[in-house]
Amino acid sequence: MPTITWDYLCNFCNRPINRGRPTILFATNKPLLLGIAHSTCATNKDNLGRYQMNPPNHLFPVQIAFLTQFYPLLHALPNVLTPNAALRQCMADFVHHFPSSIIDPMECLNRYKEMHLDKPIAYEGDLGADYIEFLARVLKAAKVHPVDIEFDFP
Fold this sequence. Notes:
Helices cover 39% and strands 18% of the residues. By secondary structure, the chain is of the alpha+beta class. It has one domain. A three-stranded mixed beta sheet has the order 1-8-7. A three-stranded antiparallel beta sheet has the order 5-4-6. A two-stranded antiparallel ribbon has the order 2-3.
């Protein structure tokens, strides 16, 4: 199984990544791991799912499979400029706290609801049920399509 770690070449500038916060790149239109980049090289790239590592950090193949499936499903949700964007915002918070958010996924949903106590959440449907259903779809897809790569930035 390949392991991506320090001194791996950036997808954009082809220089080794040897410090900072490496950014894993994912396609947003289909489940695909694209590579890794310096955080500064990946900043202005549109239509990419970007997961920023926070060394020391290790992501196992099952976590990479989860993220590979997560980003296309996230980008298929209504964008943040639409009234029905609450699920996308919750999922963005979920991935921001990943991988610890997978331990207690309801914490992200509850945090989102607490942030909006003073104003009603404009969402058609059951946000909690859709949140759980979204995560279940991602987990199922990740199980069906495993990834054989890990990221280790000690």
